What does this fold into?
Amino acid sequence: MEAIEGESIYGANRDQLEALRREVTASITELRERMTQETGFDPVEHGLARIKAEDSMREKCRRRGLPETTRSALVELFDSIGMRVVCAFRSDVYLVRDHLASLPGFEIVEEKDYIRNVKPNGYRSLHIIMRTTDGRAPVGCGETQGFYVEVQLRTISMDTWAALEHHMKYKKEAPANEKLIIDELKRCADELASTDVSMQSLRDLILEES
It folds into this structure.
């Protein structure tokens, strides 16, 4: 189904996308409240959930060589609904991941663990793509498969590093000392990862005493 100029690339699916965004967000809120009550620790520092902006989705379709259609936006691409969940500790990243994997009506169809398999530049994060399995599927796409939700899970340290790296990566011109900057960014990423491990150990000690 081609998205007519001036109409939403999401076609008649915008309300369903918003409902799914709220549903997954609410489930994480419930997890936070339960874990805070049980352990005294909130597993999530902060989070962000959004429906990808129309212009951004159209631009991504063009970049991928896809037609600017509802099917491209909701079937060929997987980030119409995007979430970033920032946790205080590494173990909480996997706690949230397991929670999402257990949600009724969803399945994880792709997972990339850049925490255990760090990217060469030092980037760390856990990326998952979820899909609905309960019959909810995009209208007007000629498909029976479900809606997709992309989730990025990180610690505070990982998120801080990624934000700073993003600012430098997207400068218009590469600096003359680019190699030095890349090496220093990698070193900083490794130091922050070491801090994450130490903070996890301290938190575990506190929980053992409680």
